[in-house]
Design a protein that fits this description.
The protein has helices at 20-44, 46-60; strands at residues 2-5, 16-19. With 72 residues, it is mostly helical.
Amino acid sequence: MEFHLSGKEFGELGGIPFDARGAFAGGIAGLASLGALSAWAAAMGNLGGYILVAKFAGVLRPLELVSVPPVS
């Protein structure tokens, strides 16, 4: 199944294809990776949880979804 996004803002491109099955499969793969990483963190105990939170914040920081207070 493939959807085509088109409109005035896309100009002469003729639409941008969107693969719904591929997006769904990518989401499932991401959830599987998150589950595996969570299992690894649980096996490490408290230290694993701290590492997992730090990695997650490190991923979100460049996207400016996590604010870090300035160091004074």
